[in-house]
């Protein structure tokens, strides 16, 4: 079975790349579309460099999140005609296709003077603009995918309106002009379009019933059309149209979402609807489908006919559609991005049929075949390093020798921040640590990065087959860490910090969940940073849920590290911690407000300077002020990143040793550790009938049903500890600039920017329901937050039981043998059965907890009922201690 990797190919970053393509026959260049700059940039595939002069810059664009320059299509005869077409939303909110010609003097630039408007479609709102365009490899007509016009819930019912172009797939002939008197219509209607003679239908319509077709594609071999159509709040879908189709399909929106009723019609017959070939729900935290491509390249023959797609939360999957049955999707996220990825923007395809992923922060990755080779002493797989840069932190453990990097491509093809992202040299002093990440491209000159006392340089040469690391002096800023008491041994200090990390991750997970459940998804109002934009509370809920699930992954990973170093696992939760420099703030279950959100942003905020283009200094100061006010009357507020910097400092110290007498492996041993949690199998998607399709791993093995859960990193060596800690720091607190937007800090910040202050104009009610702070289940009405309504109290106590069972399940997961590791001789059939049962139990408990938490926010807090609702109490059990399973 082929193992895949995602290989970064651009030497310098793009600005919000949203599409990538090549003209027919051009195997040297990839044309990358930048959404908000309006630029089309040429990426040289042989070198990874970007031409300094843009191929084209489209001006007069709107810059909304779903607007801007959205599509690019080269004419089928581009090699002779030099014509290309772009799709964009202009400043008036009008979706436009415009034609350009390539410069007669320079094939690497288009001629702006050749601009010709082909078609325009007004958009009532700033979202759901669609914007995909492409020529069919079969009929050579131009296809144009448009969303339903935006807002939410299809308020104008545009997708089913045959008199509107919104919510449709259009098909036009750009070689003709059937509207010679209209300068904004320079196209013809294909003679076999399906609705030419249908009363009330616009003739451009090829198919209808789309919500927001975000990335579609033709299978270049068969001509079949695949469409990724973004759902509302519950289901995402992949629609399909075979090449032999005569058009006219109705894909259902907004009569239904996926296969499920949404706005069913009454009193009139339901039109014939075409089912999606694949759908998945939001139950697993996913939020928006991104359609991809069927692989038709030559580099990976095993993938012929495989369709790739993604979700904006960072999952990448694939399936093969046989034309009849709903396919089973296989997750390939862990293969492509072992360290995780988010904000996938789009896919692309070059002339050779190779597939690319465009990431919002500026990277373009190609899906490649991973070359597997035996480990070579001190060598690091550079191919994996391109997508898993944290493995380079392992080099820090080899700092007593020269480290040789195997160079698989010419040095000029490599991007410095791709190689060094997450790599940090650590000062071994007790007081401070520097976490350094660089940007730029590798050249012949040595590249230097350092900390006050530890410093390195990477030298590269186009003639050399290897890059060496060697010391050289340089000074960079430092990051504060906790100071170890002089009478405490390093290992004891590490365990103390890890126990703090477990308490903190657990507390953050629970607080984020409570804040999420407090939100009223029916509420909407003007964005705080732009009153012309309406935001829906419902869009914040999946984002916060995803962060909470990731905190669970951090919690479990910390347990793995504790198990590895010989510490006791802990699922306790410190509600009233002693103020220290590692604990962010006192535990509070609170409804989400601007001040509470500021507290979360501040806790996840990187320590030190932040690029002012990412967060305005005035906003940063406002967040700090609000956070300190919200932290229990001005009590301590700290950055969680301080804790992980402190842990990286400890485990990077050459003096750190594990006791060989503890039964655990020494620090240099890489064999698996018994009693370590392992969640290495991709998790499935819930189907509409309540069943769950089994997942298939990268080896083709079908696995039993399990709920999609947090990312859990196994730890079998000190190097793995460093990689795991670096991953947590990057995902949570943006420990390097490249992870800023994808981190918990970045995602909370985006919510904060639009979140209203109390009683803000335009908000009829607050985003959060009237739930109490720190609800408790007791019979004393005078207790603040007491749930005293009889029925509500019973449901709240049931919630606590479910929460405690979940904690017990998590505890068991970290205490059973690692049965998935072939080297673990303690594995038994009984242990396997126990694991399957516990995972199933976790599935049931998490679904129950979610349902109960939502229910409690709609039930009265007290009797007689008032406007005050209850909330999930998350009461800790007396103990989470269990017997170790052997």
Describe this structure in words.
The structure is a single chain. With 886 residues, the protein is an alpha+beta fold. Helices cover 21% and strands 19% of the residues. The protein has 13 helices and 37 strands. The longest helix is centred in the middle third of the chain and has 29 residues, at 490-518. The protein is globular and about 80 Å long. The two termini are 33 Å apart.
Provide key terms for this protein.
single chain; eight-stranded mixed β-sheet; five-stranded mixed β-sheet; 37 strands; globular
> What low-confidence regions span 5 or more consecutive residues with pLDDT below 50?
373-478, 661-695, 703-709, 818-827, 882-886
Q: What is the share of helical residues? A: 10-25%
Strand content: 15-25%
Largest sheet, described in full?
8 strands, mixed
Total DSSP E strands: 37
Oligomeric state of this protein: single chain
Q: What is the CA-based Rg, rounded? A: 28 Å
Ends apart, CA distance between termini: 33 Å
Secondary-structure class: alpha+beta
> Order of strands across the widest beta sheet?
1-26-25-24-2-3-4-5
Mean pLDDT: 77
Shape: globular
Our count of helices gives 13
What topology emerges from the helices and strands here?
Blueprint: E1 4-8, E2 17-21, E3 29-34, E4 39-44, E5 56-57, E6 69-74, H1 78-81, E7 83-89, E8 94-102, E9 110-122, E10 132-135, E11 142-145, E12 168-172, E13 205-208, E14 213-218, E15 225-229, E16 235-241, E17 256-257, E18 260-261, E19 278-281, E20 289-290, E21 307-311, E22 316-319, E23 330-331, H2 333-336, E24 344-349, E25 355-359, E26 364-369, E27 379-380, H3 382-385, E28 404-406, H4 416-420, E29 432-433, E30 447-450, E31 455-459, E32 466-470, E33 479-480, H5 490-518, E34 524-527, E35 530-536, H6 540-565, H7 594-604, H8 617-630, H9 640-651, E36 695-696, E37 702-703, H10 718-733, H11 744-754, H12 790-813, H13 829-856
Parallel strand pairs: 2-24, 27-28
Antiparallel strand pairs: 1-26, 2-3, 3-4, 4-5, 6-7, 7-8, 8-9, 10-11, 11-12, 12-13, 14-15, 15-16, 16-19, 17-18, 20-21, 21-22, 22-23, 24-25, 25-26, 28-32, 29-33, 30-31, 31-32, 34-35, 36-37
Helix pairs in contact: 5-6, 5-9, 6-10, 6-11, 7-8, 7-11, 9-10, 12-13
């Amino acid at each position: 079975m082929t193992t895949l990797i995602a290989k970064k190919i651009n030497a310098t970053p793009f600005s919000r790349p949203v599409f990538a393509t090549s003209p027919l026959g051009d195997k040297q260049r990839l044309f990358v579309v930048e959404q908000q700059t309006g630029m089309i940039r040429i990426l040289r595939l042989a070198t990874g460099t970007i031409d300094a002069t843009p191929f084209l810059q489209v001006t007069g664009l709107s810059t909304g999140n779903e607007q801007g320059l959205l599509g690019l299509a080269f004419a089928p005869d581009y090699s002779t005609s030099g014509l290309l077409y772009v799709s964009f939303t202009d400043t008036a909110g009008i979706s436009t296709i415009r034609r350009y010609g390539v410069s007669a003097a320079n094939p690497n630039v288009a001629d702006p003077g050749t601009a010709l408007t082909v078609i325009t479609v007004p958009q009532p709102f700033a979202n759901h603009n669609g914007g995909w365009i492409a020529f069919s490899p079969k009929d050579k007509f131009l296809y144009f995918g448009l969303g339903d016009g935006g807002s939410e819930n299809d308020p104008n019912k545009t997708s089913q309106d045959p008199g509107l172009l919104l919510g449709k797939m259009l098909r036009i002939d750009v070689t003709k002009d059937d509207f010679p008197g209209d300068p904004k219509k320079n196209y013809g209607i294909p003679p076999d379009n399906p609705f030419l003679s249908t009363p009330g239908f616009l003739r451009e319509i090829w198919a209808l019933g789309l919500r927001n077709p975000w990335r579609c594609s033709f299978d270049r071999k068969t001509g079949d059309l695949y469409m990724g159509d973004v759902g509302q709040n519950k289901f995402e879908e992949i629609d399909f149209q075979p090449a032999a189709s005569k058009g006219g399909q109705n894909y259902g929106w907004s009569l239904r979402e996926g296969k499920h009723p949404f706005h069913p019609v009454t009193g009139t017959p339901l039109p014939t609807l075409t089912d999606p070939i694949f759908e998945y729900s939001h139950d697993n935290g996913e939020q928006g489908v991104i359609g991809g491509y069927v692989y038709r390249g030559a580099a990976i023959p095993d993938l012929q006919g495989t369709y790739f797609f993604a979700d904006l939360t960072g999952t990448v999957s694939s399936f093969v559609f046989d034309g009849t049955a709903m396919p089973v999707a296989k997750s390939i996220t862990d293969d492509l991005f072992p360290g995780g990825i988010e904000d996938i923007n789009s896919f692309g395809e070059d002339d050779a049929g190779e597939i690319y992923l465009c990431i919002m922060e500026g990277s373009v990755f190609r899906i490649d075949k991973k070359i597997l080779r035996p480990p070579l002493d001190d060598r690091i797989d550079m191919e994996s390093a391109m997508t898993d840069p944290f493995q380079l932190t392992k080099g820090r453990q080899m700092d007593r020798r020269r480290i040789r990097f195997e160079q698989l491509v010419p040095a000029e093809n490599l991007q410095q921040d791709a190689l060094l992202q997450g790599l940090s040299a650590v000062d071994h002093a007790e007081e401070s640590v520097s976490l350094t990440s660089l940007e730029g491209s590798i050249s012949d000159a040595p590249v230097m990065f350092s900390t006050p006392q530890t410093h390195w340089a990477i030298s590269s040469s186009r003639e050399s087959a290897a890059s060496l690391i060697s010391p050289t002096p340089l000074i960079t800023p430092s990051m504060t860490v906790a100071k170890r008491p002089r009478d405490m041994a390093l290992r004891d200090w590490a365990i103390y910090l890890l126990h703090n990390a477990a308490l903190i991750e657990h507390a953050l997970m629970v607080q984020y969940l409570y804040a999420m459940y407090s939100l009223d998804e029916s509420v909407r109002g003007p964005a705080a940073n732009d009153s012309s934009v309406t935001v829906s509370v419902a869009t914040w809920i999946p984002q916060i849920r995803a962060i909470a699930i990731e905190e669970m992954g951090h919690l479990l990973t910390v347990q793995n590290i504790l198990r590895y170093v010989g510490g006791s696992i802990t699922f306790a939760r410190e509600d009233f911690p002693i103020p220290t420099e590692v604990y962010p703030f006192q535990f509070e279950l609170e409804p989400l407000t601007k001040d509470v959100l500021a507290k979360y942003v501040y806790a996840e905020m990187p320590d030190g300077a932040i690029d002012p283009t990412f967060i305005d200094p005035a906003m940063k100061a406002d967040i700090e002020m609000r956070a300190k006010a919200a932290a229990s009357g001005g009590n301590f507020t700290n950055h969680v990143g301080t804790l992980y910097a402190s842990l990286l400092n400890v485990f990077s110290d050459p003096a750190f040793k594990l006791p060989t007498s503890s039964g655990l492996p020494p620090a240099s041993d890489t064999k698996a550790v018994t009693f370590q949690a392992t969640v290495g199998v991709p998790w499935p998607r819930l189907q509409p009938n309540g069943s769950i399709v089994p997942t298939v791993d990268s080896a083709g093995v079908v696995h039993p049903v399990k709920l999609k859960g947090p990312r859990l990193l196994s730890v079998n060596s000190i190097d793995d500890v460093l990689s795991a800690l670096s991953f947590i720091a990057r995902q949570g607190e943006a420990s390097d600039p490249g992870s800023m937007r994808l981190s918990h800090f970045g995602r909370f910040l985006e919510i904060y920017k639009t979140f209203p202050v109390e009683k803000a104009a335009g908000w009829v009610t607050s985003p959060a329901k009237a739930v109490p702070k720190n609800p408790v289940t007791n019979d004393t009405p005078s207790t603040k937050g007491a749930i005293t309504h009889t029925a509500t109290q019973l449901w709240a106590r049931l919630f606590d039981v479910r929460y405690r069972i979940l904690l017990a399940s998590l505890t068991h997961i970290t205490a059973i043998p690692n049965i998935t590791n072939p080297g673990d001789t303690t594995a038994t059939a009984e242990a396997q059965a126990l694991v399957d049962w516990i995972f199933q139990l976790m599935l049931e408990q998490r679904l129950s907890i979610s349902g109960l938490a939502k229910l409690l926010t709609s039930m009265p807090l007290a009797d007689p009922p008032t406007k005050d609702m209850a909330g999930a109490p998350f009461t800790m059990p007396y103990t989470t201690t269990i017997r170790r399973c052997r």
